[in-house]
Amino acid sequence: MKCAFLSVHLILLLTLLLLILGLKFTFLYYSVRLQFGLEEPVHLFVVDAFYYNSSKSFPNSTLAILFNTRKHVPTLPLTCQTRDHSGHIIKAEVQIDRLVNAPGQCEFTTFVALCPAVLDPVDLSIGVDNSPLEKVPFSMADYEPRKLVVCMSRMYLFENWQLLFTSLEIYRHFGADLMVAYVESVISDIAQIMSAYENEGFLKIKPGLRMFRHETMPYDPNSQTEWRNQLPVYNSCLYEFKESAEFIMFADWDDVFIPNNYHTTMEELIFQSRIHPSAGALVFPWKKAHVTTSENPLNFNISITFSTLKRGETQHGGKYVAIPSRVHGTWIHAASKLTRGYEQVWLAETVSSFWHLRHWTYYDEPESLFNAGKLSIGNSSELYSSFEDLLSRHNLTKIFSRLPSKSVYYPIMVNCYSAMESNTTRNTISVCPGPHHCDVPQLDIKCMNLRTEFRSRHLLNGVYVHQRFVNELYESSKGCML
Predict the structure, then answer these.
(1) What is the Cα–Cα distance from 91 to 362, expressed in whole angstroms?
(2) What pLDDT does 157 receive?
(3) Three-class HEC string of 235-283
(4) Distance between CA 325 and CA 328 in Å, rounded?
(5) Which of 10, 301, 394, 458 has the CB geometry, 3.0–4.6 Å to 366, for a possible disulfide?
(6) In contact, 148 and 171? CB cutoff 8 Å
(7) How far apart are CA 332 and CA 282, in angstroms?
(8) pLDDT per residue as tens digits for the range 246-282
(9) Which pLDDT belongs to residue 316?
C-alpha cells in the first residue's frame, strides 16, 4: 500500500516537472519572467519577405518572412494577415523554423515564418497573439528560369578589384547565369564597374543588412550574428531564387568554382546530381589557391591571372551547391535545413572543387609571365576578351586605370580573419566571430556605404519588430565603413 502511495506521488511529481519544463518554452512563461525583469525582450529584425504563388517547396500562395532574433527566443504565437485586391482577408498562425543553429558564442540567428496567404496578396501584416498588426513589405520570389545562381557573401571594406573581376569573369566563363552581391561598403570606382555587370544582367547588386542596437538590448545584434550577417543574406538569396534556379551556389568572393571534368559548371553539377539522386546539397572540396596578378591596373592581365592559378592539395572543409527545392536553410559551408528524404553529399577530392584565392603574388611586368605554367582548364583568352570588351562597351577603361595599386583593408581583414578562423578551429574563440573584432583605419577614399534606418513597433509586452524603411548605398569621401 505504501509503495503504491509513493508511486502515485512520484507520477504526480514527474507530471508536474514535465508541465513546468513544457511551460518554460511558452510565451506565457516568457511574459511572466519579463514582468519581473528576468527575461530579455524579443527583437524581430525583418530581413526579407517573399511571396510564392506556386512552389516546389511550399503550399501554393505562401509568404516566407525571414527575420533575425536571438536563437533561444521563446515560442511566439506569431500570426499573419494578408489581403487581396478585392478586400478578402486571411488571418492565420505562422509556422516558424530556425534556419541556422548559431554557434555557442553568438546570440542571434536567422528564422523563417511561413504564412498561408490569400491568392495574389496586396499587403501583409504580422502580430503576436492579440497585438496590433504591423505591415511588412514583401516582393515576389524570382520565377525567371535560371540554371545556376551564385549567392555571394556580403561585401564590406571592399577594395580588392583583382579578386572581384577575376571571380566575376571565372563564374561567367564557366556558365553561371547570375551572381548576387550584397553590399555594405565598396570603393566607388569598383561599384561603378560592378554596375556594368548589373546592366548586362549578370550581376544583381543589393544593399546588405545592418541592424541597430535598440535601447532595451544588452549588445549590438550585428556583433551577435555569425560572421556579421553573412547568413541572413545567404538565406535571403536562397529564398528569393528558390523557384527559379536549378542550382544555387554559396561562396565568398575569394572562392571560385572550377570544373575539372566538364567544360561548364552546369555539366559538372548535372552529372553529380544524377549519380547522387538523393542529394539536396553537394559539398565540394575547398582548397587554398595561389594567385599571381598585378597591383597596378595598367599592367593587369586577367588572362595571366587565370592561367597561372595554382591550387594547393590540402583540403580545408568544403563549400556547397544547393538543389533549392530540397534545401530550406543554408550555412556557410553546407546546407542547414534539408527536405526530408534528401541528404548532404560530401564529394571526394577527385571531383571539381572550390579554389580559395587566399595567397597572392604580384608582378610588375606581365610579359615576364607569358611563358609561365598554364592552367589546362578553361580559355584564358576568352576571359581576357570578355573583361576588356566590358570595359570598352561601358566606357570604363579610364575608371579602371585609376583603381588603387595598394590594398589597405584587404590585408588587415585577411590577417584578422585568419586569426579568428584558427581560434575557431581550435575551439578557443570565446566571442561571436566577425569583422567587428578587426581594427579598421579610416581612409580618405570614395566609397559606397550602406545607410539603413529602421521603423520599430512594440507589438506586445516585450516583443518588438524592426523593419528597414531606408536601405540604400550612398557615396562618402571618408572611406569604407563596417
Answers:
(1) 60
(2) 95
(3) HHHHHHCCCCEEEEEEECCCEEEECCCCCCHHHHHHHHHHHCCCEEEEE
(4) 8
(5) 301
(6) no
(7) 13
(8) 999 999 999 999 998 899 999 999 999 999 999 999 9
(9) 79
